[in-house]
Design a protein that fits this description.
Shape: globular
Strand order of the largest sheet: 3-2-1-4-5-6
CATH architecture of the largest domain: 3-Layer(aba) Sandwich
CATH topology of the largest domain: Rossmann fold
Strand content: 5-15%
Number of helices: 18
Helix content: 40-55%
Number of strands: 6
Number of domains: 2
């Protein structure tokens, strides 16, 4: 059983704090998936109305009857023209019957670039590319929701889509998709900047929550955040007592935000590799200010993160550094959490345990792929190196 010790933090030093979206939400900043899409509700409703009215197999039938002709008659509404194709994608992926998280959305992104759909031997976006490129032999395998995305791209980028058709360039199509994703990211960044400006309690809540995570600021080596909120200047001026601490936005700030997928199933030679977080961080030159910082922490506190697979490429190297599989290593992981209104205490703890078990089982599979009995979680809890902490 994982032990819970609220006073355990007092004995820890050299701490790295890792923050997920749950941190900003706990600080009363409305940055959830549902918050943002509610803000965009007019656009979302326009998308729903338009997609429902696209005739089944419209583009497939049209292109078969009119080969080499992209002058389609079905137009997208003006109010959708300047929006990103990813709004359509995320809207159609959204499950209205459950709470949607950004991790769920990134999983849908991951699947769209890696899973074979409709037994076509191709991924979702490869099937959209087939329609735009007019590979007639493959078009018969398309479906209505594939049509929707191809129609949108042909309307928005008619000249480039003609080049894609003539040269059969999947790489060019994926570059357009990335451009569309960057547009979506900028929209979300502007939304965050606006809600921070009107919030009167966010920064105060930041202080309160960080103090709850660690009672001694001097023991914090660094804070790393998956959020786009840039707390760098604020923390240096209002929280830390000295300038030696490091704050780092893992996926960029509102100046350069990134959504992306894990690189596990995407080869570097694949055209879809440009959507991996690894590639996007490298291209945007997201390098920490102090390269020696990675050698100085002994303990990590993870708060507000769902521990989903899309971020294993971040967590696994940290677990390697902590030598989780070495019983002699005096390192610890604290999984911190808070209550929130929509779920009971028991349900929150159950979700936490499920997520912790999953990431540690996957990590053990990663370092010992041939090991049949998975005992890492048992060992860590027995050694007192893993703690579940409510703040």
């Amino acid at each position: 059983m994982i032990k819970k010790k609220n006073d355990f933090l007092k004995s820890l030093d050299q701490i790295k704090i890792i923050l997920g979206n749950g941190f900003d939400l706990h600080c009363k900043l409305k940055t959830s998936y549902n918050d943002f899409f509610n803000y965009k509700k007019i656009l979302i409703q326009n998308i729903i109305n338009w997609t429902e009215n696209v005739p089944s197999n419209y583009l497939k039938d049209y292109l078969i009857e009119n080969p080499n002709n992209l002058e389609i008659s079905l137009q997208i509404p003006k109010e959708m023209y300047n929006s990103s194709i990813w709004y359509i994608f995320f809207t159609l992926c959204k499950n209205d019957s459950q709470e949607n998280n950004w991790s769920d959305i990134e999983k849908e992104m991951q699947d769209s670039f890696s899973l074979n759909i409709y037994n076509s031997g191709k991924t979702f976006w490869e099937n959209v590319f087939v329609l735009i490129s007019q590979n007639i032999d493959e078009i018969i395998k398309a479906r209505k929701n594939i049509d929707i995305f191809a129609v949108f791209m042909i309307n928005k980028y008619p000249e480039i889509c003609k080049i894609i058709h003539l040269k059969q360039k999947k790489e060019l199509f994926y570059q357009l998709l990335l451009k569309e994703l960057e547009s979506f990211e900028k929209d979300f960044a502007h939304y965050i900047e606006n809600i921070i400006k009107i919030s009167t309690i966010y920064y105060n809540n930041v202080n309160i929550t960080l103090n709850a995570l660690s009672s001694n600021k001097l023991k914090i080596i660094s804070i790393e955040s998956f959020n786009f909120t840039n707390l760098d200047s604020y923390l240096y001026n209002n929280y830390f007592d000295q300038k030696s601490h490091i704050f780092y936005n893992i996926n960029g700030t509102t100046d350069n935000p990134i959504f992306g997928i894990d690189s596990e199933k995407i080869k570097t030679i694949d055209a879809a590799y440009i959507f991996t977080k690894t590639s996007r961080r490298l291209i945007q030159n997201m390098i920490k200010n102090d390269i020696n910082e990675v050698e100085s922490f002994k303990n990590i506190i993870i708060y507000g993160h769902s521990l989903d697979k899309q971020d294993f490429n971040y967590f696994f190297p940290i677990f390697d550094y902590l030598k989780l599989d070495d019983a002699s290593s005096n390192t610890h992981i604290i999984f911190a959490y808070s209550d929130y209104e929509s779920k009971s205490k028991e349900e929150i703890e159950r979700i936490q345990m499920k997520n912790i078990s999953y990431i540690l089982e996957e990590y053990e599979e990663y370092i010992y792929p041939k090991r049949k009995q998975k005992r890492l979680l048992d060992s860590l809890s027995t050694e007192g190196r893993i703690i579940l902490l409510k703040i």
